[in-house]
Design goal:
Helices cover 30% and strands 22% of the residues. By secondary structure, the protein is α/β, with parallel strands linked by helices. A six-stranded parallel beta sheet has the order 5-2-1-6-7-8, with helices on both faces. Strands 10-9-11-14-13-12 form a six-stranded mixed beta sheet. Helix 1 crosses helix 9 and helix 3 runs parallel beside helix 6. The longest helix has 17 residues.
Length: 340
């Protein structure tokens, strides 16, 4: 494909702006870049040294485009993506289409060939699932994963722009309440982004609960990993919100079909695309979410074999949920499409 004409739907949001920055960084050649949002109101967004006018979403906003990268709420994607799929290829970051059989769910480091099977929509996976699957996939291909038990440590930015804002606001409110915090008596304004105060707290809930007590985020991690990697892997996840700004962490225990050592796992991961191994605890080298923020890879460490099971090991993985978990992956999909 020659230089494409691209729409960025949700261009004024945090992920949309990150998409624009990544397109610049990677010198993605475009014939036209069209920022699209729910309203225009004379707004502009910066791209390659220019201020591009924002176009309000509507049928005409997609005229002449080759494809569009979407970062919108699920309900917006549900309404608009099907309306334009015969005219424009949509690379969608919402959860709306990820599990549909006719929509490929693509991580270029893991299943790039799936992008070619699209019929007008390619889905971008969940950011927490991305933190797990980038190291899990090469280990599964080397040793055959059969069961995964994972716990996430998810930053406030995963809840949108209101998440970090609420965290900072509550930190300010709590400045004079040190004793109250220690006694569990912190008083803050009514939480909006989260169900409980997030400052100085950990909340074991991300998403809505179902009848079994699992959350939508936990289901996404399991079902999307199964779709991309292997439907036979049993995955049980617990999703937890923590008071950080950017970067998700995953603690994972994996049972394999074959015996595996920590050294063998490190060797596989060191050669894996999209993975950076930081695993020397004696030198205080292990993954942190601050280290992952702004980066393009999952950082993996704390790799160790379960002493009670020669076929099981654990790792800790961190990844920038806004960058690789959302914006970068959509741009990488766009690169796959333009090369085809």
């Amino acid at each position: 494909m020659s230089a494409p004409r691209i729409g960025i739907v949700g261009a004024t949001g945090a992920v949309g702006r990150e998409v624009l920055r990544i397109l610049e960084e990677r010198r993605f050649e475009v014939a036209e870049l069209r920022p699209i949002a729910s309203r225009a109101d004379g707004r502009t967004v910066p791209f390659n040294g220019e201020e591009l006018p924002v176009v309000a979403i509507g049928d005409a906003a997609f005229d002449g485009l080759d494809f569009a990268i979407w970062d919108t709420p699920d309900e917006v994607a549900a309404e608009w993506v099907p309306l334009v799929r015969d005219r424009v290829l949509s690379i969608d970051n919402s959860a709306q289409f990820r599990l549909r059989d006719d929509v490929p769910l693509v991580i270029p480091e893991i299943n790039p060939d799936a992008a070619a099977t699209h019929s007008g929509i390619i889905a971008n996976p969940n950011c927490t699932m991305m933190t797990l699957i980038l190291p899990l996939a090469p280990l599964h291909r080397a040793f055959g994963a059969s069961r995964v038990i994972a716990s996430s440590y998810q930053s406030t930015s995963g809840a949108g722009v209101g998440g970090p804002a609420e965290l900072f606001s509550q930190i300010d409110e709590s400045a004079a309440q040190r004793e109250a915090i220690a006694l569990g008596q912190l008083k803050v304004s009514d939480p909006k982004a989260f169900t409980h105060p997030i400052a100085f707290n950990i909340i074991p809930r991300v998403g809505g609960f179902d009848g079994s007590g699992s959350t939508s985020e936990e289901r996404r991690v399991a079902l999307e990993t199964n779709k991309v990697l292997d439907a036979s892997i049993a995955i049980f996840a617990t999703a937890v919100r923590v008071p950080t700004i950017v970067g998700h962490g995953i603690s994972a225990w994996i049972s394999f079909d074959a015996e595996v050592t920590a050294d063998a796992a490190r060797e596989v991961l060191a050669a894996a695309a999209g993975v950076l191994v930081e695993d020397d605890p004696a030198s205080n080298r292990y993954p942190t979410t601050l280290a992952a923020s702004g980066g393009d890879k999952a950082i993996v460490g704390r790799i160790r074999r379960d002493p009670s099971d020669a076929r099981a090991l654990a790792f800790f993985s961190t990844c920038d949920n806004l960058r690789k978990g959302a914006a970068l992956n959509t741009v990488q999909i766009a690169e796959l499409v333009t090369r085809s």
